Amino acid sequence: MNTFTMNNWEERIVSGSEGEPRVAYAHASMTFSGVIEGEASCDYLLFYPGEGYDGGGTTSPGYDRIEGSVDGRKGTFVLRHEFTFDLDGLSSTFSVVPGSGTGELAGLSGSGTIKGTPGVLTVAYTFEYTVD
C-alpha cells in the first residue's frame, strides 16, 4: 500500500486574521512508503474563507521535495499539488515538476492523487510514473 505519514506541520497566517478570510503558509515534513520511499520537505499556501480550518472548496497549491527512491531508483524530485480541504477531509492531485528529478530519477514524470481523513496522520496515495 502507498502511504505517507505527516511528521510535522507548522502553519502561520500571512495575511488576514483568524476568523475571517485569510491566507496561511504551512511547512511540513512527511515520510513516504510504497512506490515512493523517502522523506519529504513540503511547503503550502492555504486559503481559509472564514472561521475554523475549512478551505471552503477552494484549491491551495503546494510543493513536496522528496529525497529517496521510486521503485528502488534513488534520487530527489519535486511534486506540485493542488489541494482541496474541508471538514470532511483533504484531497489532492499532484504531478512531478518537469526537470526536478536527480540521480536515478532524472527524467521522472508522473502524477497521482491523495485522499485523507481529518485527524488521521497516515494518508493513502496513488502514483503513476515513467522515467525516461
- Extract low-pLDDT stretches: none
Helix content: under 10%
Oligomer: single chain
From the helix content, strand content and strand pairing, which structural class follows?
A: mainly beta
> Which of globular, elongated, flat, extended, rod-shaped describes the shape?
elongated
Residue fraction in strands: over 45%
Taken in chain order, the helices and strands follow as: EEEEEEEE
Report how far the terminal alpha carbons are from each other. Answer: 25 Å
How many helix segments? 0
Q: Give Rg in angstroms.
A: 15 Å
Structure description:
The protein contains no helices and 8 strands. With 132 residues, it is an all-beta fold. The relative contact order is 0.19. The mean pLDDT is 93. Strand 7 (108-116) and strand 8 form a beta hairpin. The chain has an 8-stranded antiparallel β-barrel.
Structural descriptors:
eight-stranded antiparallel beta barrel, elongated, mainly beta, 132 residues
State the gist of this model.
The chain is an all-beta fold and 132 residues long.
Which SSEs are present, and which pair or pack?
Elements: E1 3-16, E2 22-33, E3 36-48, E4 59-70, E5 73-86, E6 89-96, E7 108-116, E8 122-131
